[in-house]
Design goal:
By secondary structure, the protein is an alpha/beta fold. The protein has a single domain, classed as Rossmann fold. It contains seven helices and five strands, in the order H-E-H-E-H-H-E-H-E-H-E-H. It has helices at 6-25, 34-43, 55-61, 66-69, 88-94, 110-123, 142-153; strands at 29-32, 46-49, 75-78, 100-104, 126-129. A five-stranded parallel β-sheet has the order 2-1-3-4-5, sandwiched between helices. Helix 6 links the parallel strand 4 and strand 5 (126-129). Helix 2 (34-43) packs across helix 7, helix 3 (55-61) runs parallel beside helix 5 and helix 5 runs parallel beside helix 6. It is globular.
Length: 157
């Protein structure tokens, strides 16, 4: 007759935690508007985004524990185009010392672009610029944007 081993009993929760919780903690997180939504889905990453929202909406609804559970991988943010970046600085401050990569809108969105660059530079963030499609705002190719984001991760802050 085989003797019961408590080691397997105690190890099972740890194995389950490693398999399911750790990958969620160390995945990129996309936050923002329709551009973040498209890029997050293209990258198959956690995405908190909605079409047509401004930076103030995002600031109010972003997870409050954001900087606490995202440590190793960056938060990718596309914000400010729909409200000229009114709450971008506060949204950035909520992320604390987390790594942030900003998706910068095209030059014709001058106020939003300026707000994003100012907030990001104040925290030493990284930026990604993309080629817009026919509508002049959304990326021509979301996978190209995701590749640019991946390339930016390796650069120093």
């Amino acid at each position: 007759m085989r003797k019961f081993s408590w080691g397997v009993f105690y190890a099972t929760p740890l194995v389950l935690f490693i398999l399911f919780a750790v990958p969620a903690v160390y995945a990129d997180t996309y936050i923002g508007d329709s551009i973040a939504l498209g890029a997050g889905h293209a990258a198959h990453q956690t995405t908190y985004a909605r079409v047509g929202v401004g930076s103030c909406w995002m600031d109010r609804r972003a997870p409050s524990s954001l900087p606490n559970f995202i440590l190793a991988h960056p938060i990718i943010v596309s914000a400010g185009v729909n409200d000229e970046g009114r709450c971008v600085a506060h949204l950035r401050a909520r992320a604390g010392h987390a790594q942030v990569i900003w998706i910068v809108p095209p030059p014709k969105y001058e106020r939003a672009r300026a707000a994003i660059l100012a907030a990001g530079r104040a925290w030493g963030d990284r930026f990604v610029i993309y080629t817009p499609g026919r509508d002049g705002l959304h990326p021509r190719n979301y996978m190209d944007l995701v590749r640019s984001i991946e390339a930016t991760k390796g650069q120093p802050r």
